[in-house]
């Protein structure tokens, strides 16, 4: 991705670490995220996993400012995201793609991705209504950049097609293109491979690596596909019931007894496995699952417990 | 993204070449016809046209709010009143003992009225920024009744319900709209331009400005923000859009459009007076709902649709008496089949048909008919 058209050239982005420290999120009496701490190092691919209801999406929402944290601190470099109005977080270099597609179905792909440039562009009703020349020049420059990004994601041929009519996988890519249009230093992807088959998942894995390699940005992603997670993540943070149970490189996390217990249930010490009664949850896969998405166990889509089902859709 | 330059250069135009040529030609033809109409049409038909344009300006504002940003307003009638009263006060004669006036030039009065309506809309931000869709619609309804009460409580400003006050006719650089045809010194192709012709051109100019401003905003950054807020507030926020500000802003813009339509209403009726009942009149709930009907009939969010919808909803009740040769005094008299009643039936039926068969209104119908031509290159 050669971004000569904009000020922020790839590789030279000022990528700063994202520090989540002792963060707690409460919904009424329910503690969705309980004193969770982890750090996304600059330029790393960081996975956030856990069974359904573990608090992954709540964590995502807290970082992108959509839900308020009850205590703790989230910082990007030295900026406190918890004290930043949610709509200003994008301008700080946080781009986010959604789990459930959050595109405007009737707007074109171009319009959808161009929305990602909102914080980078200016002009209000009168300026655009009067077609101010400087705004039109800027809009053309940004349109070129949007075309570049769409090309990078392989959706350039749909540029003038309404997003709602595209196949699911392509809509996912448009969503990621929109997150990249923010020119992020931290790219957040919520289940990028959800609903994809093995070859699409492999393409997505390659895409995420390309984004990191070519732009040098950090990637934080939530994913249930353990093949994808273990295959590309530099570091994996595991949540269970809102608590952090593991935070390490994939090979260590895969063998951590707490993680295996969280996904398969714990032995109560009397030879009877007390399986947690909760829908979903894919085993990290100490055997066989690594690198082959097709054989990785997938979580159930239904029966998602609170608060994880309070997805980004609000 | 190694071959990015190719990608940027290859940006495929969405429309075929012939479609674009056809569009430009169509627009040119439309402009010529609209400019030439006053030379051929009699005055009473020109008044039908200017009334349609009044509706079009208001409908444009409402379609930005409701169609583009997904926010509902039933307060359009109220902002029409704010615009009309503001103009009457700003440009009204300064020494009048009964009515307050500032004696400002009509242009200043016009701009001031639009600005004041916009500010009144902006003042509603604590409500319009927080509520969504139908909830805002219900909350905004309160404004109509506030306007109704204020209009009656302040006759020195809004004019009394019995006699009303006269809105200053528009004039600029000594060129007045209010000149009778016999005394007109201005003529085009031997046709003298009287009151109705001049009003036509003034309204045409105002409508064109309103349309072009809306068009520029819809296709640019503000329009994208509106649609993002309409389709998904969370996604809009995460992508850097301040949802509260966008919602309050588009409400204010829509109010300013209604204010302009209000000034046009006052000129058209020739008198500024508040409504005598909550349900009927120029600034009440019925008018607010008529504007909603326009944008639904035309297709939510579509600018040409809003204009067509206005032509239908505001045009029919004034055009029907001319067609049936009945006395125009019948309008609003409430007798069995007055043009108003017929129009209400007509657009009521139309709304039902449209929601059943073509939910995107006349704009959707147009797209369906012209779609094949558009796709062809």
From TrEMBL, chain A:
SUPFAM superfamilies: P-loop containing nucleoside triphosphate hydrolases
One of the Pfam families matching this protein, by short name: ABC_tran
Residues covered by region (Disordered): 271-314
Biased composition (Gly residues): 279-291
Any GO MF annotation of the entry: ATP hydrolysis activity
Domain annotation ABC transporter: ranges: 18-266
Annotated GO CC locations: plasma membrane
Residue ranges, compositional bias (Basic and acidic residues): 299-314
Domain of life: Bacteria
Swiss-Prot/TrEMBL keywords: ATP-binding, Nucleotide-binding, Transport
Protein name (database record): ABC transporter ATP-binding protein
Source species of the chain: Gandjariella thermophila
Gene name linked to the record: livG
UniProtKB/TrEMBL annotation, chain B:
Highest taxon of the lineage: Bacteria
Pfam families: BPD_transp_2
Membrane topology: Multi-pass membrane protein
Principal localisation: membrane
Subcellular compartments: Cell membrane
InterPro entries: ABC_transp_permease, LivM-like
Keywords: Cell membrane, Membrane, Transmembrane, Transmembrane helix
GO terms for cellular component: plasma membrane
Residues spanning the membrane: 21-42, 48-65, 72-90, 102-127, 134-151, 200-218, 248-268, 280-300, 307-324, 336-357
MF (Gene Ontology): branched-chain amino acid transmembrane transporter activity
Name of this protein: Branched-chain amino acid ABC transporter permease
GN (gene name): livM
